[in-house]
Amino acid sequence: MLPTHSIRRPEQKKKDGIGSLSSNGRAKHSMSTIISGHPLTFCVFLFFVVIGSFTFVWVSTTSHEEQVNVLRAEIVEKREATIASTTALLELQSSLAEAHSAFNEKVQQLSDTTFQLTLAQSSLKERATEVLSLKTQLSKAQEDSREAEKKLEELRAQEKLVESQKQELEKKLQELQRKLEEGGTTKKAPEVQRAADLSSKTPTNTQQQQDTSRLDPTDCREAVKASLKFAWDSYVAYAWGLDDLAPLSRSGRKWFNLGATIVDSIDTLYIMGLEDEYQKARDWIKNNLDNEQSHQEST
Questions:
Q1: Contact 255/288 with Cβ under 8 angstroms?
Q2: What's residue 4's pLDDT?
Q3: Residues 71, 73, 77, 82, Cα dihedral to 10°
Q4: What are the distances in angstroms from CA 55 to CA 42, 45, 64?
Q5: What number is the average pLDDT over the span 264-278?
Q6: Separation CA 35–CA 66 (nearest Å)
Q7: Bigger pLDDT: 194 or 217?
Q8: Going by C-beta distance under 8 Å and a sequence separation of 6 or more, which residues neighbour residue 179?
């Protein structure tokens, strides 16, 4: 090998003569000088360069994998968070659906309650109508009761009047007996004389049988028919539709408001052959007689 100074001298001369080279030129010149003059040094240098490159690549790869792992961990965390959020959202949707179902049930219950309230109001109105009807019936019954009390008072007054008349008659009878006892058999009181005259004029049973045997049955039938027609015409004229006729006052009386005389006489009219009177009585019973009232009165 040549000494180093023998090599550098020409370079120094050249450098001194030509001037300084450019940096690239110097690098190329030094690299070519190293390759040509020191191949072992170049191999070592090249080895270290390769090792450095591999180290850099390895470090870069390792850091990239770590970043990838970090990114994967973040993705996994975000995915888990997303799954948790989705689960929470599904639970929230389920809760919302349950709340909606409960709300619909409450609405249905409210609708049912409203319907029941409407039915209760309708029933209450019906009950109120029934109460008003019962009040009307009660007032009518009270009026009927007052009328019945008035009639009862009238009957009691009549009973008292009859009782007083009875007492007066008893007193008169006692006076007559006393006068008879005082006057003896020779002198009779006018009332007793009239009673004796009436008794003498009254026919006996034998006389009645003899007089009846002399009468024509047709005449008897017609007489009875005429008597019935007279009584019926009087009832029609003065007390039609009432229970009976007061012959002296010529007025009708209403005991049960059933037309008792009509109901009692219709069969007799039919038997007697009084067709017009029978038809009139039949029409009145058909149109005016209240069966329910007659049943209540009979019971």
A1: no
A2: 46
A3: 50
A4: 20, 15, 14
A5: 90
A6: 40
A7: 217
A8: 189
pTM score of the predicted model: 0.30
Rounded CA-CA distance 63/57 in Å is: 10
Look at residue 232 in the predicted model and tell me its pLDDT.
Answer: 92
Record the tokens describing residue 261, joined without a space.
């005389």
Backbone angles phi, psi at 253, to 5 degrees: -125, 140
Look up residue 289 and give its two tokens.
């007689």
- Proportion of the chain above pLDDT 90, given as a percent: 13
Length in residues, the chain: 299
Q: What is the pLDDT of residues 165-176, one digit of tens each?
A: 778 777 877 777
- Judged against a pLDDT cut of 60, whether residue 122 lies above it is answered with yes
Closest CA to 239 of 223, 227, 255, 218: 255
Provide the 8-state DSSP code for 253.
Answer: E
- Distance, in Å, from the CA atom of 296 to the CA atom of 185, rounded to the nearest integer, reads 59
DSSP 290: -
